[in-house]
Amino acid sequence: MILYFSKAGYYIPDAASPDASPKLEFTSPLFRRRLSQLTKMIVQVIHDVTQAEGITDIKQVFISKRGDISREFSINEQLINDGEILPAGFSLSVFNTPVAQASLALKLKSGYSVIFPSQGNIYQALQASLAPVICGDEKEILIAYGDEYIQEEYGTLRPEDNQALAFAFIASAEKKEGWTPIEVSSLKDLSPVEILEKLK
Description:
Blueprint: E1 2-5, E2 9-11, H1 29-32, H2 37-53, E3 60-63, H3 69-82, H4 87-91, H5 97-106, E4 112-115, H6 122-134, E5 140-147, E6 165-172, E7 180-183, H7 192-199
């Protein structure tokens, strides 16, 4: 099945600052004050792709292999040290936080889904994300992928691909000028970085 993909909005921190995050200057300081690297990256890339395409509302799907792992670490640390979890910290650690915050920041009201790819299989997650477009339930859908830098405390448990990365793109079954036609099955064995390279 061939679909048409918009140019991706993306964010990759410099190698010298792997835990860096975008400044989100289009949001208020109060809004962005407590956001994690992953959430800031997802808000930024969804902002970039919707602005580039002139879209004011669209359904979204968020995919991540690790989710907000830095917040999860903080919560586990707090639970071990204090024997409790503060509600404010927990509310920003759940898997849908990045796309939920993007929806709030950008006033996207059509809703979102989140997908945790089994065993890190990004292709299966993409297939599930693209299903509404493939079957004709949606004309187009925005897909955002992101994983943040895993901090040093994880030691040898950190994966080799420990690079923060986020990108977002819009997929459509209808041919659009300037969009890239891609056979969905051609994405099967590609890493997130390789998928991004096809969409830049």
